[in-house]
């Protein structure tokens, strides 16, 4: 199977998967941050914040990811001139596209993270927040020390699902020129249409290797960290 | 406590003309109640009469529609930091304990002192251990709430409230969710507290506790305070028909 050795040598498939992993991890961290803020807005007592949070989730979640990513490139960068990398750098185009992709992936998946966390918040009995308020914790501290720690533990399974979806959805970054795994796959297929199925197979296995352990890790974490009531 | 006492000074907690609705339902109807420093008031009455709402109004877990509630002469702040500060001064013990499920017993007691009062961890730990010993659960400090019996959990909840050095403690049916053999251990802690002149408002149907520890019984029905008297007098010689009916029901069962 020379195509397999080509994957490693000629196409540097590992570097492509490394890019996929970076895209995924950076976007995951950012999505977790944004998603947490959105979830907090949705459960806050301030009506305006609730509305903003709800609007964010409903608009972003129902927009196709491709559209979000393309907007980051065409809309933010080319039209509005927002660039996320050093213009003088000779890797500017690559850096900028990568970061715009991270931005798009984060913003998009944050809506799913927010929903996952909100479902986690719903697993926390009302009495927990009430007891926290009763000892004098203000709203944000009640969330930070009492509600969110329990909500995250109750949301581990859906958060794991978002991470798996994010890993696979990171392939959309190829539409704005990020050389992640699926972009390399396209090139390989163009060059070696004779072994189309093998190429597909290699990349499919690559993604399974990335996502399967994530699924298993999150399942075991959700059991281990479950809050006993 | 005679009537003249409540007339001559405003109590530590003073409710005046308090009204509260849940939608159409008028749950608190023109409540006037003054509780002195060190006084123990037992609130009794049929289910749905507004006892919990009254308790929750005192630390503003429920906002009221009209009237005023003063704590130590100060009106309850409406929201934000000032309200949080007020709540820190009012201890609350719930029927369902509501211990923080993800925190150890010790952490349950130290959370308020460290995050609200700004005490150091070592200072808070030391105090928490002393309080846990005082309520008889010192040996459980490293465990999680789910590992404790209901009676132990409720005593931890009392320690958690006491750790804030509250001016007044509210108990909303603290023994109603407990198996009978655990009721006494919780009531003993409460009697002990009352003996140390803690100001307490206790919603309970435990007549033994009322007789041993209360200065006054307040009987509520349909959102109103229908009768107030010393415990012995209330239980042996209730004045109103509502109180007589209610007592005959809980006494014959
Ligand atoms: N959050 C709420 N929303 C609507 N109705 C409520 C709420 N809390 C209590 N009630 C109603 O108010 C009345 C008084 O309730 P409560 O104060 O809990 O009574 P008690 O503690 O004496 O049993 C009841 O009819 C109850 O159904
Ligand atoms: Mg009640």
TrEMBL record, chain A:
Family indicated by similarity: Belongs to the binding-protein-dependent transport system permease family. HisMQ subfamily.
InterPro entries membership: AA_ABC_transptr_permease_3TM, ArtM/GltK/GlnP/TcyL/YhdX-like, MetI-like, MetI-like_sf
CDD domains for the chain: TM_PBP2
Bilayer disposition of the protein: Multi-pass membrane protein
GO cellular component, one term: ATP-binding cassette (ABC) transporter complex
Annotated organism of origin: Kribbella sindirgiensis
Example GO BP: amino acid transport
Keyword Secreted: no
Assigned keywords, A-Z: Amino-acid transport, Cell membrane, Membrane, Transmembrane, Transmembrane helix, Transport
Domain ABC transmembrane type-1 residues, every copy: 17-218
Main location (coarse class): membrane
GO molecular function, one term: transmembrane transporter activity
Gene3D superfamilies for this protein: MetI-like
Ranges that cross the membrane: 20-44, 65-85, 195-219
Subcellular location: Cell membrane
Record-given protein name: Amino acid ABC transporter permease
Automatic annotation (TrEMBL), chain B:
PROSITE patterns: ABC_TRANSPORTER_1 (PS00211), ABC_TRANSPORTER_2 (PS50893)
Species this protein is from: Kribbella sindirgiensis
Primary localization: membrane
Catalytic activity reported: a polar amino acid(out) + ATP + H2O = a polar amino acid(in) + ADP + phosphate + H(+)
Family matches, as Pfam families: ABC_tran
Protein name as annotated: ABC-type polar-amino-acid transporter
CDD domains: ABC_HisP_GlnQ (cd03262)
Keyword annotations: Amino-acid transport, ATP-binding, Cell membrane, Membrane, Nucleotide-binding, Transport
Entry-linked Gene3D superfamilies: P-loop containing nucleotide triphosphate hydrolases
Entry's EC annotation: 7.4.2.1
UniProt topology in membrane: Peripheral membrane protein
SUPFAM superfamilies with a match to the protein in the record: P-loop containing nucleoside triphosphate hydrolases
GO molecular function, a single term: ATP binding
Similarity field: Belongs to the ABC transporter superfamily.
Subcellular location, record wording: Cell membrane
Top-level EC class: translocase
One GO location term (cellular component): plasma membrane
Positions of the ABC transporter domain: 13-247
């Amino acid at each position: 199977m020379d195509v397999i050795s080509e994957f490693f040598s000629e196409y540097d498939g590992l570097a492509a998967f490394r890019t996929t992993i970076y895209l995924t991890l950076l976007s995951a961290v950012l999505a977790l941050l944004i998603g947490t803020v959105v979830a907090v807005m949705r459960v806050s007592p301030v009506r305006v914040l609730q509305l903003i949070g709800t609007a964010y989730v409903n608009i972003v979640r129902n927009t196709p990811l491709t559209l979000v990513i393309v907007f980051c490139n065409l809309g933010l960068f080319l039209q509005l001139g927002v660039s996320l990398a050093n213009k003088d750098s000779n890797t500017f185009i690559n850096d900028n596209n990568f970061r715009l992709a991270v931005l798009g992936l984060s913003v998009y998946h944050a809506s799913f993270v927010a929903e996952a966390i909100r479902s986690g918040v719903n697993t926390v009995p009302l009495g927990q927040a009430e007891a926290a308020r009763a000892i004098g914790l203000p709203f944000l501290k009640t969330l930070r020390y009492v509600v969110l720690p329990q909500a995250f533990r109750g949301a581990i399974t859906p958060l794991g699902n978002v991470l798996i979806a994010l890993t696979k959805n990171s392939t959309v970054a190829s539409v704005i020129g990020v050389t992640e795994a699926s972009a390399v796959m396209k090139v390989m297929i163009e060059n070696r249409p004779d072994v189309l199925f093998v190429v597909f197979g290699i990349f499919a296995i690559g993604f399974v290797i990335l996502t399967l352990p994530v699924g298993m890790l999150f399942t075991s974490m959700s059991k281990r960290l479950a809050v006993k009531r | 406590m005679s009537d003249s006492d409540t007339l001559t000074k405003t109590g530590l907690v003073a409710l005046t003309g308090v009204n509260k609705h849940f939608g159409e339902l008028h749950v608190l109807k023109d409540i006037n109640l003054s509780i002195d420093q060190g006084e123990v008031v037992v609130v009794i009455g049929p289910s749905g009469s507004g006892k919990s709402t009254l308790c929750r109004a005192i630390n503003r877990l429920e906002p009221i529609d009209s009237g005023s509630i003063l704590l130590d002469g100060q009106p309850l702040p409406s929201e934000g930091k000032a309200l949080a500060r007020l709540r820190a001064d009012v201890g609350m013990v719930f029927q369902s304990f509501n211990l923080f499920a993800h925190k150890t017993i010790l952490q349950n007691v130290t959370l308020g002192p460290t995050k609200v009062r700004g005490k150091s961890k070592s200072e808070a730990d030391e105090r928490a251990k002393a309080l846990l010993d005082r309520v008889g659960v010192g040996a459980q400090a490293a465990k999680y709430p789910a590992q404790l019996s209901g009676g132990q959990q409720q005593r931890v909840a009392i320690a958690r409230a006491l750790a804030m050095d509250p001016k007044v403690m509210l108990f909303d049916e603290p023994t109603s969710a407990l198996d009978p053999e655990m009721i006494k251990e919780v009531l003993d802690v409460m009697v002990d507290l009352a003996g140390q002149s803690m100001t307490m408002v206790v919603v309970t149907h435990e007549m033994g506790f009322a007789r041993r520890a209360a200065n006054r019984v307040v009987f509520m029905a349909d959102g109103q305070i229908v009768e107030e008297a010393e415990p012995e007098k209330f239980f042996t010689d209730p004045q109103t028909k509502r109180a007589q009916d209610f007592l005959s029901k809980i006494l014959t069962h």
